[in-house]
């Protein structure tokens, strides 16, 4: 995200940045995830106890609002799981 003469805009698409975006770490790089709080809350409500099931549920919900590159699915999953544990 950048702030130019016309206000804040997304440095990737040039549009308005999504509201509710927070960052996770994917392969050592901060990566914005739109609606992360909402995603984590929904997965917590599932009351899952297995890390693989939690990670899959996080990825499914993340893909509704965010692009997750197929080649980086595992890295995104790990970053999401770490964010889930922190909250």
Notes on the structure:
Strands 1-2 form a two-stranded antiparallel ribbon. It has a two-stranded antiparallel ribbon with strand order 3-4. It has helices at 36-44, 51-65, 73-86; strands at residues 2-4, 7-9, 21-26, 29-34. It is built from three helices and four strands; from the N terminus they run E-E-E-E-H-H-H. It is globular and about 45 Å long. Helices cover 44% and strands 21% of the residues. The model has no long low-confidence stretch (mean pLDDT 87). It has one domain (18-86). It is α+β, with helices and mostly antiparallel strands.
Question: Which helices and strands occur, and which strands form pairs?
Answer:
Elements: E1 2-4, E2 7-9, E3 21-26, E4 29-34, H1 36-44, H2 51-65, H3 73-86
Antiparallel strand pairs: 1-2, 3-4
Secondary-structure class: alpha+beta
The biggest beta sheet is recorded as: 2 strands, antiparallel
Strand segment tally: 4
Q: What is the count of structural domains?
A: 1
Tell me the number of helical segments per DSSP (H or I, 4 or more residues long).
Answer: 3
Spatially, the strands of the biggest sheet line up as 1-2
The helix content, as a percent range, equals: 40-55%
How much strand content do the residues show?
A: 15-25%
Terminal CA distance reads 24 Å
Mean pLDDT: 87
> Any low-confidence stretches, pLDDT <50, length ≥5?
none
| Element string (H = helix, E = strand) | EEEEHHH
Shape: globular
Radius of gyration: 14 Å
């Amino acid at each position: 995200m950048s702030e130019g003469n016309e206000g804040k805009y997304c440095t990737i698409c040039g549009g308005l940045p999504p509201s509710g975006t927070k960052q996770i770490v994917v392969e050592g790089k901060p990566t914005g995830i739109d609606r992360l709080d909402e995603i984590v809350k929904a997965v917590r409500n599932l009351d899952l106890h297995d890390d693989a099931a939690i990670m899959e549920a996080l990825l499914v919900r993340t893909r509704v609002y965010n692009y997750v590159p197929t080649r980086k699915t595992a890295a995104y999953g790990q970053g999401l799981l770490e964010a889930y544990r922190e909250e």
